[in-house]
Amino acid sequence: MTSSHFVTIDFGSIDPEHGAPAADRVISGDPQFRTWNCDEAEGGLYAGIWEATPGKWRIVYDEWEFCHILSGRSIVTEEGGKEQRLEAGDSFVLRPGFRGTWEVIETTRKEYVIRL
């Protein structure tokens, strides 16, 4: 029996959405995104897996996001703050109002939970 209240984060059966940062936010490289949105709930709650290829771009967060790095290496730097070097196993939260940059050094894949 399958429960509608249990959702496996399994991107193998989902076609990814393809994207990229807006051209005016790109600082270097040609970063490309793939997103497997595995679950969505009323009120703006999303969970899934995101992947980005090398490049650097400006980020601005209006939402709250929990991230867990599955593979790759990235550097996230908050405006006026120090850079945070991220690799497989690292977890963090970006809160609404976060402004800075995301630089993918080696193609990075993360699990995410977003709340708008």
From TrEMBL:
Superkingdom of the organism of origin: Bacteria
InterPro entries: RmlC-like_jellyroll, RmlC_Cupin_sf, UGlyAH_Cupin_dom
Limits of the (S)-ureidoglycine aminohydrolase cupin domain: 41-112
Pfam families: Cupin_3 (PF05899)
CDD domains: cupin_TM1112-like (cd02227)
Protein's UniProt name: (S)-ureidoglycine aminohydrolase cupin domain-containing protein
